[in-house]
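Tutorial, part two.
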Amino acid sequence: MFFETFLIGILIAVLYIEIFDIYPGGIIVPAYIALYLEEPLRILITISIALLSLLTYKFLSKFLILFGKRRFVMIILLGTIWSQILSLLFPYFHINSIELKAIGWLIPGLLANNLERQDIILTLASMFTVSIFTYFLVKIIFLL
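Running the prediction step on this input gives:
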């Protein structure tokens, strides 16, 4: 069911982008969010890491020349670094729950990249719209 969710999520994201000209956090991000829609803490941690990566990027961009490919690579790298830092720190706070980890290493960076390019509220609302639609469409298809 993972492959089908990714396929449906990517198709819906591409259609959404074509119709509304708004990126829902990237093309693959809504499919991953749809997979973890039943684990809201993981989604919250992922969004938090994306926002933290965005803030770190904005701070670093005052001192570094970051545009184009460099900007994209830096944001992905920051998302990966923050994901790893939080997963390493949580055991020291006696928090071992799997729900308190980000969804993948790249997803927060991909989301942060789109948050930087578009309005934050618009991007998150689009991401949740596409993710929820994907989630329910997959449930309906596999219920039949």
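The CA atoms of residues 79 and 85 lie 10 Å apart. In part three we will examine how such features are distributed along the chain.
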